[in-house]
Amino acid sequence: MSTYFKSARKKMLPMALIAGICILFAFTALAVNIKLGNLPIWGYLMFGLFILVGLNEWRPLLLLKRDYRQMVKKYDLNSEMIAENLGAGKGYDGARLGNRYLFAYNSKECKLFLLEQLVWIYPHVTNVSQKALGMTVSNTAQLAVAVVDRERKSIVIPVKDTEEQGKLLTELYQRVPYAVHGYDAKVQQLVSRNFDRLVGFVEEQKKKQGM
Questions:
Q1: Are the C-beta atoms of residues 150 and 203 closer than 8 Å to each other?
Q2: Are 119 and 42 part of one and the same domain?
Q3: Whether residues 51 and 73 fall in one domain
């Protein structure tokens, strides 16, 4: 699994660097002000704020393997078999997909899913605006694939382009045909307000398909 965790670390590295800069800035400012003997209360507050921001951005790296370890323990999984299953599967920008497991990650989190537990799979698009002098100069669509499992665990998986998004969606749809496919506002409401109903619906579809 070390290869897959290494890929996840690379995805998280930019945010970790920002975290490091924040913490470095905080300690530098603190040292300078202490040396000058002139550190007002707001200086301590700013120091604390930058430390908190830095640690928060480091959190994904510090907890990189937490979800994986919890899954292995909860379902009594074999790490070698997981690695073998994923190794025989397909790799994507933010995921490794085997015929039983999905190892997914982005800049904020890293999670392992049992495919049989997925209940909702859909394309995800985030519009990011670039501004200059208060004016929007460009809009960029960040493509991804989102998944939710029966325990309400979810993740947004980044993809390189529309082609990779389509391939990952197709693979997931084929491997989990009984899950809800595609985005629907009504399904989002079920996730927020009546998740058990969504799980029940998926279980019915699973039985109908003899799976």
A1: no
A2: no
A3: no
82/57 same-domain check: no
Q: Residue 157: which H helix or E strand, with range?
A: strand 154-158
Strand, coil or helix: 63: coil
> Is the pTM value of this prediction over 0.85?
no
* Digit-coded pLDDT (tens) for 109-119: 999 999 999 99
Q: Which among 110, 81, 86, 113 is positioned nearest to 97, based on CA atoms?
A: 86
Closest CA to 106 of 53, 149, 67, 77: 67
Q: What is the pLDDT of residues 18-32, one digit of tens each?
A: 777 777 777 777 777
| Same domain as 95, residue 81 | yes
Whole-angstrom CA distances from 88 to 25, 74, 100 are 44, 24, 11
Q: Which two tokens stand for residue 211?
A: 């799976």
Same domain, 58 and 72: no
Boundaries of domain holding 39: 2-62
Q: Which of 73, 70, 101, 104 is nearest to 85 (CA)?
A: 101
